């Protein structure tokens, strides 16, 4: 046993209980996301499915908004989870933190019910205020936008005040600074201009600067924290990596924004800026990959050198998901992102299923994986177990989810490739070309396989929920 890692020091803390509340809602929304994805995937194959009851546009909207919101919930949960461990004290404003949780959850419930039952409104201001804003991924109506800002301010105050009062580690310093940028960027997606180019220009500040800058730094801090907790990695080493990653991510990610400015009416100099800086984006992802694997290998070697019977990993499922994150981030964001990031390539791939292939592999690889890992850490803390051992269900969950999402990514890539060749290269784009390409067998086969692999993913998700509900109790019993 590794006695040097105090996994349970703050096991019963209020902050960790609040974290579990966030994790529970996150997993429910994750399930809703997948169900909506399945509906949308069926509609690709049977266009009349739920016609005028629940159209593709609505299923797709709920699918990707649920995605963003469950990830934000799991991110807030992860911060509340690690906060006492890192600062050495209980979180200062638990009462108001819990109040914010309930307000946030009630607001999200209302927003989702409106998405599902009201669905669309007239093209007026009232729609923007009460139904949805029509901005992909962050469609929440204006009233909810303002509510989200208030809730996030409460959360941020909690993190900041606890950080100031407690020990200030390097991990938390990065976390506090990065969260400010992450929250601040949300504001750029809250105002409206009548000019669609300008509107898109600012909207990308949220989307791109979240997933390719601030969220990446965020998961860097989670990985650093988790590696210390799970394998006893040395703080100086993980923090050194973290600072390197921060430097590189902001270096490439900020101007990498240009890869969304190729065709929306912004000046042409964005071609060069976008091409150069976004092409550099995979570099920090390699560093993150090396970081996790290097620390893991090093610690395992050292533990075994001391005691050959020692378990180097005190939370098997969390570690498995974090290693998957290192691979997945590099593959989905780094490789699949790099494929279409040069304007010379993007002019062919833009708006094809290739984009969706990258979107799925990147969001899953870079974020879903490590956030699921954090949920397993939450379970370990909640049950106060020394070592959380992977069960059959943990293994089925990770295997089927990873296999399913990879399968979807490959299927979408094949459909996208067909679109590039037939719709764009051969037929020169345009409306007719678009429909011709969609009716050819290679495209349709890709869509069929996407739906099949979606079902595989969903079965994996059922295993995941089942495992999260039972693994804590099982491990506790085994330890007793
Ligand atoms: C974890 C990080 C990332 C996530 C979650 C992510 C996700 C996404 C998503 C969802 C889209 C589609 C947006 C839309 O609906 O229009 C997109 C577009 C794009 N991504 Fe990423 N991405 C990530 C990192 C990267 C990286 C590192 C690169 C380049 C090396 C990249 C290159 C692109 C490009 C070029 C597009 C535009 C595609 C087009 O519209 O033609 N992404 N990304
Ligand atoms: C049951 C599994 C899933 C199915 C069947 C599914 C299906 C779909 C469908 C049909 C779309 C609309 C694509 C289009 O407009 O052409 C979509 C979009 C999207 N899904 Fe999924 N999905 C699933 C799981 C996931 C997961 C696990 C993630 C990420 C963690 C994810 C992230 C996204 C994103 C980011 C988009 C927008 C992509 C873009 O605009 O390019 N989905 N999904
Ligand atoms: Fe981007």
Number of helices: 16
Helix content: over 70%
How many DSSP E strands?
0
Q: Structural class per helix/strand content?
A: mainly alpha
Envelope shape: globular
Please describe what this structure looks like.
This protein is an all-alpha fold and 480 residues long. Among the domains are: 1-167, Cytochrome C Oxidase, Chain A; 314-480, Up-down Bundle (Cytochrome C Oxidase, Chain A), CATH 1.20.210.10. It has helices at residues 14-45, 56-87, 94-117, 125-130, 142-165, 170-186, 196-231, 235-256, 269-280, 282-306, 316-339, 343-349, 353-383, 392-426, 431-438, 441-479. The protein is globular and about 65 Å long. Bound molecules: protoporphyrin IX containing FE (2 copies) and fe (ii) ion. Fe (ii) ion is lined by residues 208, 212, 259-260.
Q: Secondary structure elements and their pairing?
A:
Layout: H1 14-45, H2 56-87, H3 94-117, H4 125-130, H5 142-165, H6 170-186, H7 196-231, H8 235-256, H9 269-280, H10 282-306, H11 316-339, H12 343-349, H13 353-383, H14 392-426, H15 431-438, H16 441-479
Helix pairs in contact: 1-2, 1-3, 1-13, 1-16, 2-5, 2-13, 3-5, 5-6, 6-7, 7-8, 7-10, 7-11, 7-13, 8-9, 8-10, 10-11, 11-13, 13-14, 13-16, 14-15, 14-16
Bound molecules: protoporphyrin IX containing FE (HEM) (2 copies) and fe (ii) ion.
One protoporphyrin IX containing FE is lined by residues 34, 37-38, 40-41, 44, 60, 63-64, 67, 355-356, 359-360, 363-364, 368, 405, 454, 457-458.
